[in-house]
Design goal:
Elements (H helix, E strand, L loop, with lengths): L1 E12 L2 E5 L2 E5 L3 E3 L4 E4 L2 E2 L16 E5 H10 L13 E4 L10 E4 L2 E8 L4 H6 L5 H8 L4 E7 L1 E3 L4 E5 L8 H7 L7 H8 L5 H16 L3
Parallel strand pairs: 7-8
Antiparallel strand pairs: 1-4, 1-8, 1-13, 2-3, 5-6, 5-12, 7-11, 9-10, 9-13, 10-11
Amino acid sequence: MLESLRLESINVGRAESISHGDKSLQSGICKLPVKGPAFVEELGIRGDAILDASHGGPDQAVYAYSADDYDWWAGHSEYGVEPGVFGENLTIRGLPSDMNVGDRLLIGEVVLEATAPRIPCSTLAIRMQNSGFGLEFRRAERPGTYFRVLNGGEICAGDSVTFVGDDAGDVSILELFRSNYVRSHDADTLRRFLNAPLAARFREKLEAWLTAVERVPD
């Protein structure tokens, strides 16, 4: 399946202190649009600060969010939403909220492969100045998608984006997102998830869940 999308914004952040209530930390989550071209490499957008070891890495090198989902937030909340607010590197018009792991985006010579949903953390809550934002983000079920970089290169806001669906893909980003909040897991479902080209950290989580399920006696 081929679909034409549009890259509305490329966003990068620098290391800075953010705080809310009694919580304070250094983060690169406050991303701003880049003027002109940017270079995508194996570990993400060149110049983007990633300070938390639980984020980033080659399997979660680029985080993309749908401009259409920002439209939804604008109509269903009082947050000022604009490119980069949720800490995404790429804001893309037409990006499906529920693509499959293994689906790809082509932007010029850049090739990105979907690997995992974004799971909200305390850093996002601090960024949004709302300790309860994680629950709001969960309920909205518009998590955005992490990608690995299969081929790097230069991109620019306004570029056309080609969505290439993986015909063999049967594990959706939204299904994985929902699984993070399930109290009990099904072994067959977890095995199906593990057959997909997941991000390494999400794979480790699923493997731990599967081990726990398999230890439970029938």
